[in-house]
């Protein structure tokens, strides 16, 4: 199951909205090969240019992603990742 099924639309709540100029496009992919499963998500503006607000959010999430990658180690728990970025992410987005 991928995020598009959960968040975008499905049989009970289809979504056939046209992508408009300035909309963000989210691609959530989950390839699997020889028992290895991966999950990759990317977001980009439909017109190739982020608004200032989109840029702020994109860069905050990118920074959080890089912080988690830097801190990762064997037997790294998801909870540790959340502790590492939830509060800083709210600061980077100006929520505190």
UniProtKB/TrEMBL annotation:
GO terms for biological process: proteolysis. Keywords: Hydrolase, Manganese, Metal-binding, Metalloprotease, Protease. Gene3D superfamilies: Creatinase/methionine aminopeptidase superfamily. Residues 2-74 form the Peptidase M24 domain. PANTHER family: PEPTIDASE D, PTHR48480. Coiled coil: none annotated. Its cofactor is Mn(2+). This is Peptidase_M24 domain-containing protein. One of its GO terms (molecular function) is metallopeptidase activity. It holds the Pfam family Peptidase_M24. The keyword Metal-binding applies.
């Amino acid at each position: 199951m991928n995020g598009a099924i959960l968040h975008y639309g499905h049989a009970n709540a289809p979504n056939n909205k046209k992508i408009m100029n300035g909309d963000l496009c989210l691609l959530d992919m989950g390839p699997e090969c020889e028992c290895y499963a991966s999950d990759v998500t990317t977001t980009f503006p439909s017109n190739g240019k982020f608004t200032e607000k989109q840029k702020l959010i994109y860069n905050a999430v990118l920074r959080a992603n890089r912080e988690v990658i830097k801190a990762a180690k064997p037997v790294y728990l998801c909870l540790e990742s959340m502790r590492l970025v939830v509060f800083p992410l709210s600061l980077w987005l100006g929520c505190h």
